[in-house]
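Margin note from the TA: students keep mixing up input and output lines. Inputs are the sequences; the output is the structure of the whole complex. Example:
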Amino acid sequence: MLAANVYVTLRKSILDPQGTAVKNALQSIGYEEIQAVRIGKFIEISLDGISKEQAETRVREYCKKLLANEIMEDFRFEIVEK
Amino acid sequence: MLAANVYVTLRKSILDPQGTAVKNALQSIGYEEIQAVRIGKFIEISLDGISKEQAETRVREYCKKLLANEIMEDFRFEIVEK
């Protein structure tokens, strides 16, 4: 069985208010080493009955059709044996 | 400069309705190879002025204090040079 680990992150040019809130919260409790926080999604998909090569193509399709909004977000993924 | 990549995922015993909705949506457009989808968070933190060893300790603290709810969530992280 295969698993796809998909990482969806906001593009660099897009503001991330959730990340900024977390950065400020951590700084306010004394963690001054924090320069920036960006929050994205980590999506684990279990796949069955397809090859690793097919999975590469399919997961790209999932990302483009449903998982990522490419206007605002970047995605990357890896296919691993499970 | 260092970066921490933090992955926060729901514990296996916790239902993930958002993941189930994504699974159903992908299956409904014909991707029948999908067995399960679990959605977590991917948090990128930029750190300055501390060593890699200090960063390991600090990032564990961030997770325990703020980034993860350990009753429902697991976390793991890696520290990388940026």
